[in-house]
Amino acid sequence: MKPTTYREALVWASSLLASINPKIAEWLQLHLMGVERQEWVRSLDDSMSSDALSRYQGWVKAVVDGEPYQYIVGEEDFYGRTFHVSPAVLIPRPETELLVEHVIAYAKRYWADAVSCTMVDIGTGSGAIAVTCALEWDKVRMLAVDISEEALSVASHNANQLGAQVEFLQGDLLQPLLSRKKKVDVLISNPPYIPFSQKEKLDRNVVDFEPHTALFAPEDGLYFYRQLIQQSPSILANQSLLAFEVGIHQAQAVVDFIKHIHPSAKCEVKRDYQGIDRMVLAYIEK
Q1: Are 117 and 41 part of one and the same domain?
Q2: For position 192, which CATH number holds?
Q3: Which of 49, 62, 176, 213 could form a disulfide with 169 if both were Cys (CB 3.0 to 4.6 A apart)?
Q4: Residue 71 within any structural domain of the chain
């Protein structure tokens, strides 16, 4: 039977998406209708127009075929805010919220008496980290770097929409900072860290749709950490913090890289929601 109401369409979609996540059926309807959840519940028995039904069915089938629903609706929530996303950027993950949480906690501890704290987010993508840090503490002076013009366009849009003051720079890793002779107190990065050898093991919705330049890295996934850490002495202030999100089984290698370049660094490894070592934070005094 062809669905005629939102409720009937929801039942149909939830069944198709049962093996993925049936809640996606609800999220897609909420976005389709452009209403809050309470109003959506009241409208479930309303009839759907043929155009609305066709659009909804197309979205559901796209998710079944592997497309992330975040790209379909063009947004994802991060740290309590809604960010625009597109296939040009990685979809923000909940684990990265923990990285922001730790960075802000460290910054408030070590720069509590400072007039400001200059941070840079390398490989900013959607700008989720940079925008959130800028909004979470009024002392933050935020810079954000990405090599992709398309990614910077998405990040800039998010900063404008959410009212964050962020200076965006295009370039490869730390080069925009080095060329401008900028110094920062905090360097944050969630760089590509999946080894190319793991490509076939990833879910289709990741491999087929998310940007590979934001996912994969050579040298067992550790290439970008090596580059950032080796270049970091030239851009870090006398008192500074390195903060990285890392892949599974990579934390100790990243700590070792940091200790090689910054022998006096005080390193901490933090776990994610699954208990996996996911973040490396290193406080440095020159």
Answers
A1: no
A2: 3.40.50.150
A3: 176
A4: no
Contact 269, 218 (CB under 8 A): no
Q: Are residues 112 and 212 in the same domain?
A: yes
Token digits for 247?
């892949």
Which residues contribute to the annotated binding site for substrate?
Answer: 190-193
Query: 180 and 51 in one domain?
Result: no
Structure tokens given for 195? 């080894």
- Domain total for the chain? 2
Domain that holds residue 201: 87-285
For residue 261, tell me if it sits in a domain.
Answer: yes
Q: Which residues are annotated as a binding site?
A: 123-127, 146, 190-193
pTM: 0.90
User: Could you report the per-residue pLDDT of 3-28, keeping only the tens digit for each?
Assistant: 789 999 999 999 999 999 999 999 99
Tell me the average confidence (pLDDT) per consecutive run of 10 residues in the chain, 286 residues long: 84 94 94 92 93 95 92 94 94 94 97 96 97 97 96 97 98 96 97 68 53 62 93 96 95 97 97 96 95
Amino acid at 84: H
Whether 63 and 69 have beta carbons less than 8 Å apart is answered as yes
- Residues 81-120 pLDDT 10s: 999 999 999 889 999 999 999 999 999 999 999 999 999 9
Span between the terminal Cα atoms of the chain, in Å: 70
